[in-house]
Design brief:
The chain has 204 residues and is mainly α. The chain folds into two domains: 102 residues, CDP-alcohol phosphotransferase transmembrane (TM) domain (Four Helix Bundle (Hemerythrin (Met), subunit A)); 99 residues.
Amino acid sequence: MLDEKRYLFGGLEEKLGDFFNRWPISPNQWTLISLAAGLVSVYLVIIQSFIWAVFLFLIAAFADFINGIIARRRDNYTRAFRYFDTMADRYVDGLILFGMLFLPLPVIYLPGYVWLFLILFGSLVTAFAKAAAKEKEMVIVELKGGIVTRAERIILISLALLLATIDTTFVWTTYVLIFLAVITNFTAFQRIDSAVKADKKSRA
């Protein structure tokens, strides 16, 4: 949902762009910072240092936000940059879920690792539904939107980790992960449905 409301943050993006464009860091270097922060956050999750894990995970998300702004400012928003950025995002998302595999999540309906797999699977299908629709020429404009996109996933994963600081049984953490698993896969179905409808409309 938040990716469809970027216009609400136009002023903030402008100010951040003015500030960080002065830094001698290229868009690809910002992407590498995002990857590095993501790797450190995984280790922090494994050792159950959740506050710092969330901090580094949000740093990774922030660096990913900044790299696009800087790339557009410097006319470096190339296909190669966007490809590298997209693949880096998938690694950061997958790594944080990998780290959570080491937590003693309780069995709530299903084992914790199953919910983590469903989150990862749903997020990958959501991204692939967009790419496949474009590749198969089912849509003209790139598919976006859905009930939960990457921004919401970052927020909910951060919430799940923060809850682990006050609930050592990880019950509330697991409930957040269950919720995320369900809505992430629902979003994937939304994207698939949108692609099919767009294709039918174009052939009508």
